[in-house]
Amino acid sequence: MEAASKKCWYLLTAKANQDQRAQYNLLNQGYTVYRPLARVPRIRRGKREYRIESLFPRYLFIQLDPQQDNWSPIRSTYGVSGFVKFGMYPSMVPDSLIDYVREHEQEFESRAIVIDEFQKNEPIAVIDGAFKGLEGVFMQFEGKQRALVLLHFLGHQRPMRVPTRVLKSI
Fold first, then answer.
1. CA 62 to chain centre
2. Do 104 and 22 share a domain, yes or no?
3. CA 144 – CA 6 distance, rounded (Å)
4. Is the pTM of this model over 0.85?
5. Which residues of 57-67 are buried (b: 16+ CB within 10 A; e: fewer)?
6. CATH code for the domain in which residue 128 is found
7. Which residues pair with 161 in a beta bridge?
8. Contact present, 64 and 33 (Cβ < 8 Å)
9. Residue 72 carries which DSSP code?
């Protein structure tokens, strides 16, 4: 009697801006695909809008049986760039990681930042926290959660590090 093969998760890269296309085409071929999504803020015509985008741009998870599934069509699927490999073989992603991402997808969404949300020298306002109500100028991101801004404070511009979640374009 043959041992039953177990399906495993693998990580795929998509071509630039083709995450959704790759997912759609893989699903149409009958593969199980998971692309975590986030509601990400964007500034459009001076107003903040939210768009649904990939939580991990250019990456998707695919579940395959290493023994039974046909991997050949994946490489030529429109939108797919290839497998993430360590050495010669695609690296497996633990089921526990997929479960964790699925359980916390909404929480990750609230922490997602968009690197191009603010531009250098763009006027900003602080909408929460100790500096609430102050205006200034955005300088640069410092990591994923903080930004360096010049705030108008006591008649001078002072450099301050503030969480990105409290900033708003004006």
1. 17
2. yes
3. 37
4. no
5. eebbbbbbeee
6. 2.30.30.30
7. 148
8. no
9. H
Domain that holds residue 44: 8-111
Closest CA to 55 of 78, 23, 77: 23
For residue 50, count CB atoms less than 10 angstroms from its CB and return exposed for 0-12, middle for 13-18, buried for 19 or more.
exposed
Nearest to 13 by CA among 98, 82, 77, 93: 82
Whole-angstrom distance, CA of residue 15 vs CA of residue 79: 5
DSSP state of 164: G
Q: What are the φ/ψ torsions at residue 20 (nearest 5 degrees)?
A: -65, -40
> 60: pLDDT confidence band, cut at 50, 70 and 90?
very high
Residue type, 41: P
Alpha carbon distance 114, 12 (integer Å): 22
H-type helices in the chain, by residue range?
19-28, 72-75, 95-111
CA distances from 42 to 1, 115, 155, 170 (A): 56, 10, 31, 13
Asked if the structure places residue 2 within a domain, the reply is no
1 pLDDT higher than 50: no
Distance CA 18, CA 25 (A): 11
